[in-house]
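Dissemination and training. As part of the outreach component of the grant, students in the summer workshop were shown how a complex can be specified as a set of sequence lines and then modelled as a single object. The example used during the hands-on session is reproduced here so that future cohorts can follow it. Participants entered these lines:
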Amino acid sequence: MKEHMNTSERLQQVFRKVFQKGDLLISPSTTAKDIRMWDSLTHLELIAAVEEEFGIKFSFSEVMQFNAVGDMLLAISRKSGEI
Amino acid sequence: MQKFAAHNAMYIGQRYYTYAELEALTLKIYSLIPQDKIYDRIGVWCNSDMETYAAILAISLYGAAYVPLNKDFPISRNRKIVKDCGLELIFSSSENERLKAIAGDVRCVLSNSAQAAESRIEKKTDQPTGYILFTSGSTGDPKGVPVSHANLRSFFNCFLANYDFNERDRFLQTYELTFDVSVFSFFMPLMVGACCYVLPAEGIKPLKIVECLQKHAVTVVSMVPGVLRYLDSYFKEISLPDLRYSFFSGDALYHELAAKWSGCLPNGVIHNFYGPTETTIVCTRFVFDPQTPVAGNGIVPLGKPFEGMEFIIADEELQETDKGELCFSGTQVIPEYLDGALEEKFFVKNGKRYYRTGDLAALNTAGDLVFFGRTDSQVKVNGYRVELAEVENAVRKASGRECVVLCVQEDKLSRLFAYTEKSVDAEELRDSLAAYLPEYMIPQKFIAVPSFPLNANGKIDRKALINAYI
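and obtained this result:
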């Protein structure tokens, strides 16, 4: 199943798991303002879950640039060698 | 302010304000205070803008106590604050429905209204209170803590006597204005002609803090230790050569994290402070040295009391003991709670009036106070004081379910978990709880249990709950 999902879909699954909301929908423009429980506590959990899902490790300067889901998608693609 | 007129006083909303501009804005807001009567307490609807900070200054110079109202707090909580303080006037830099909902008949004045500014400020009231903050209450309601001008004088004199802050310093204000350390981060730079940088309200706070420390070459910062837990994976990538003073308070500071943080500060020192709101922001200090051996519990000591403050460590009968409840007397202890509530938190011994902190402490061999936990069910979540009973009451009210709320350490961060006897719809319950509790008090997880484990005394065994269901 997982191998047929693209990066956005896999990221959405991670968000759903971290925020415990099965119907959560994200887009590149989604920010912490749009998801009620997305605060500094869950952000840490989210980063760890994304790193685990994609088998990557973000640097601090990358994490600092994560203002929206789109920034995260871009960093995942870069890390995974997609771009 | 005149001495530093051309210097930058504040940086907020991506622009600088000089001391002359701050003074002009403060005079303008001061002149908006109606002259029909004397207002001893004035509310401030806290937006992250210059008008909000200038309103606090104007109210202080008028001589009234300011009462900050957090726009993210539930309407019911702010209504209670307005009522308990008997507010008749609230300043706000914006008109909005949430303010209207809490204000009722209270007069609201827009701090950015057009008004010719007074040329000078005259103190109109001489009442003793500087500000009133509200902390979580074990009875289920927040309690008002009025801090006097005399308390504040003692607090600031201690910093002026012990630190070389000067007009070249750049302070970072990381706190919400309903959090008492904001009083230090806002007023201290203005007292020495320095610049106060206000952390933007948006974004993930620990990341924004580091970004601001780097971008503005900040020299003095005070923050909650939880920020370090957050940065744990990234210390090796952070360097802050301009930071001279890194202050912590509000929660237990762990030696391991403080030692890693000191590696990011080639020219800075770390000071750990301690003090409940009732003893005026902070009242003990420990100068951290990463080379000193780690204490048994891994927590950096609380240090020694400020000048003018004394403590005893007391047992349940309030007799002095080696390890027990930390109680303070002295110039920073508040005169009383709002309306004289909770008088049982104070007692007189040997002619001195003491405040019972509820914190367990002992002295180490160096004569420094060491923290060992709480005597009650108060916990700290990201630096915020939370009475578990207040959260439990709210969950019961919102769900109709029996509930036990516990503070759980997970991934080095404190989280609130609510255990209920029947399952609940977490999303729905969170929405309901938002009507009663600030966001930081709403449990992160709701766990249904078949029944609550009991201890030998027939009381709910909280430790067993954690062990069984985490």
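Helices of chain A lie at 7-18, 40-54, 60-64, 69-79. Students were then asked to discuss how this feature might be tested experimentally.
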